[in-house]
Amino acid sequence: MGRFLLKRLANYVVLVVVATTLAYIVASLALNPRSTYEGRNPPPPAAVVEQQLTAYGVNDKDPLLGRYADWIGGVVLHGDFGQTVRGQDINDQLGSRALVSLRLLVLGSIIGAVVGVLAGVVSAIKKYKVTDRAITAYSFFFIATPVFFTAVLLKFGALSVNDAVGSTVLYYTGYETPNLQAGFWGHVADQVGHLILPTLSIALGQIAYFSRYQRNAMLDVMNSDFLRTAEAKGLTRRKALYKHGLRTALIPMATLLAYSFGTLAVGATFTEKIFGWHGMGEWLVDSITSQDINVVATVTLFTAVFILISGFLADVIYAVLDPRVRV
Amino acid sequence: MTTTQAATEAAGATGPGNGVEREFTVKARSQRQQIVRRFVRNKVGMTGLVVFLLLLAFGFLGPLVYGTSYATQNSGAQSVPPGSAGYPLGSDEIGRDLLAGLMIGVQRSLFIVLLFIAIALPVGLLVGALAGYFGRWVDSVLMRIVDLILTVPLLVVLIVVASNFGDARTPLGVGIILGLFGWLDLARIVRSQFLSLREKEYVEAAHALGASNRRIIFKHLIPNALGSLIVWTTLAAATAIILEASLTYLGFGVNNPSSTSLGRLVSDGVQAASTRPWLFYFPGITLLIIVLSINLIGDGIRDAFDPSNRRVRA
């Protein structure tokens, strides 16, 4: 198993490199950083524009592979992600933005996956009972709603909660109150208050998605012969379900887990945009609008690493759960 | 099963000819008939189907009956609330009728979904089936390609591709873009299903009987993976509608001045949510109902294919 996982890890490292390369090349071909200098009054001299673009490594007149080599060289050797199209250092923003996004992504996905799987299992065991119907209705509702629609609804909900309580309990803009003087615990409380709604907006959808799949997988397993055999040899229904059933039903979920992080990184963009979090997702959309190649590549590198860590985790789960799978 | 059916058909064919009256006429049902029957008897699935058909009528017949065109701008009736004379669901800031807009929007969204499924389903199924069944280098090559496309975030790919179409993105274009990048998760799901299905005894038996790979894949493996295929199709159809709405919300979806979509109505509505809530709620609820009905149909079909999961255990 160790060798299998090591092989997968090596694979993933290669994939991160290739993905970043692809993103850089695709972004370079599609985006036009030159437009930042167009429409300025007075128009800057052509030579200055060329010089600036070359200095930032985004001049489309320089050879693409050379520019890419410079950029990736900077990243690997010096941990330097280059400059934005307006000349700011990307590294200055990267740390804080990554932390903001990670807080949201990790918390949202863990809550989503764990609660979702549990809800799915309960739903399958209590098939067609009230609990199952409630969970099913819940997941159908949230699968059918776009994240930004839920987020706006949550915002309205928060407004009425705050009105009812009389003070601001749930925050819906930003990830902390600026210039807050409240000591350590005050800061923690403040950040948690800001975190609730965005995390909810991510987790609600994830729970719906996971519980649906888990319910289907679990139902398939519950009617299988090996579970009947397990009961026949004397296991209680509960023990048979959790020791034999759940383990098998979790196998398809491993694939789903890896994939869901990709969609999550997408979903987080909307959450960040609506709740005013300055994270990676918001950065990505802004950078594509402002034709910023280096930022697009940086965000892609971040996302690729994030997805590949989860892909590797899925492989570990795969290998632990199902020794038969010959990958 | 098939034998019974063949026998009955033969009996039926010869029956009237030589005038033999049978005391008991046992009608055999084919697998397909059984599935249709189970689906028709499933309340939830049928509810979804009825709602979906109503929405189809709403989108495609509605404009003919209703008469008002969404393109008509009335400067005398800008941002009128629902219930105003001539505007049952109100109007937007340039005086277009929201109800007419919803009809066109539903129509366009269904069109986008159809395109998406028509492109993504065959591709994903084929890639996943080949990778899962043959394993070895086929698996490695195909799955690395899938991994590769999956590593670049879907949003980046979609936005970059979409941004190349500039200001002329119609529902047709958006549907194709979504389809071209929508099959990746299906391929992974089909592959993981095939990985365990190919080890089953009946596949070994089929091999031993000399069945070709093509026959095993199409006659044995795909029917047994049909449950997850259908669950995927319904969830993905839902996702396609939502993805279209999301792309449009970010400004990279349908943006052709003369075309609209449900997503466009919803994302316009989000901007107006606090001042003109009807522009937010009505498109949002329509989107919810359309996605919900598709999912309910999928659920019904799933139960119809796999009666072992039904309430009454055999």
Automatic annotation (TrEMBL), chain A:
<feature type="transmembrane region" description="Helical">
    <location>
        <begin position="12"/>
        <end position="31"/>
    </location>
</feature>
<protein>
    <submittedName>
        <fullName>Peptide/nickel transport system permease protein</fullName>
    </submittedName>
</protein>
<keyword id="KW-1003">Cell membrane</keyword>
<keyword id="KW-1133">Transmembrane helix</keyword>
<dbReference type="GO" id="GO:0005886">
    <property type="term" value="C:plasma membrane"/>
</dbReference>
<feature type="transmembrane region" description="Helical">
    <location>
        <begin position="248"/>
        <end position="270"/>
    </location>
</feature>
<feature type="transmembrane region" description="Helical">
    <location>
        <begin position="104"/>
        <end position="125"/>
    </location>
</feature>
<comment type="similarity">
    <text>Belongs to the binding-protein-dependent transport system permease family.</text>
</comment>
<keyword id="KW-0812">Transmembrane</keyword>
<feature type="transmembrane region" description="Helical">
    <location>
        <begin position="192"/>
        <end position="210"/>
    </location>
</feature>
<dbReference type="InterPro" id="IPR000515">
    <property type="entry name" value="MetI-like"/>
</dbReference>
<feature type="transmembrane region" description="Helical">
    <location>
        <begin position="137"/>
        <end position="158"/>
    </location>
</feature>
<feature type="transmembrane region" description="Helical">
    <location>
        <begin position="293"/>
        <end position="321"/>
    </location>
</feature>
<keyword id="KW-0813">Transport</keyword>
<dbReference type="InterPro" id="IPR035906">
    <property type="entry name" value="MetI-like_sf"/>
</dbReference>
<feature type="domain" description="ABC transmembrane type-1">
    <location>
        <begin position="98"/>
        <end position="314"/>
    </location>
</feature>
<dbReference type="Pfam" id="PF00528">
    <property type="entry name" value="BPD_transp_1"/>
</dbReference>
<dbReference type="GO" id="GO:0055085">
    <property type="term" value="P:transmembrane transport"/>
</dbReference>
<keyword id="KW-0472">Membrane</keyword>
From TrEMBL, chain B:
<dbReference type="InterPro" id="IPR035906">
    <property type="entry name" value="MetI-like_sf"/>
</dbReference>
<keyword id="KW-0813">Transport</keyword>
<feature type="transmembrane region" description="Helical">
    <location>
        <begin position="145"/>
        <end position="166"/>
    </location>
</feature>
<dbReference type="Pfam" id="PF00528">
    <property type="entry name" value="BPD_transp_1"/>
</dbReference>
<feature type="transmembrane region" description="Helical">
    <location>
        <begin position="278"/>
        <end position="298"/>
    </location>
</feature>
<keyword id="KW-0472">Membrane</keyword>
<dbReference type="InterPro" id="IPR025966">
    <property type="entry name" value="OppC_N"/>
</dbReference>
<keyword id="KW-0812">Transmembrane</keyword>
<feature type="compositionally biased region" description="Low complexity">
    <location>
        <begin position="1"/>
        <end position="13"/>
    </location>
</feature>
<keyword id="KW-1133">Transmembrane helix</keyword>
<feature type="transmembrane region" description="Helical">
    <location>
        <begin position="221"/>
        <end position="243"/>
    </location>
</feature>
<dbReference type="Pfam" id="PF12911">
    <property type="entry name" value="OppC_N"/>
</dbReference>
<dbReference type="GO" id="GO:0005886">
    <property type="term" value="C:plasma membrane"/>
</dbReference>
<dbReference type="InterPro" id="IPR000515">
    <property type="entry name" value="MetI-like"/>
</dbReference>
<protein>
    <submittedName>
        <fullName>Peptide/nickel transport system permease protein</fullName>
    </submittedName>
</protein>
<feature type="transmembrane region" description="Helical">
    <location>
        <begin position="110"/>
        <end position="133"/>
    </location>
</feature>
<feature type="region of interest" description="Disordered">
    <location>
        <begin position="1"/>
        <end position="21"/>
    </location>
</feature>
<feature type="domain" description="ABC transmembrane type-1">
    <location>
        <begin position="106"/>
        <end position="298"/>
    </location>
</feature>
<keyword id="KW-1003">Cell membrane</keyword>
<dbReference type="InterPro" id="IPR050366">
    <property type="entry name" value="BP-dependent_transpt_permease"/>
</dbReference>
<feature type="transmembrane region" description="Helical">
    <location>
        <begin position="44"/>
        <end position="66"/>
    </location>
</feature>
<feature type="transmembrane region" description="Helical">
    <location>
        <begin position="172"/>
        <end position="190"/>
    </location>
</feature>
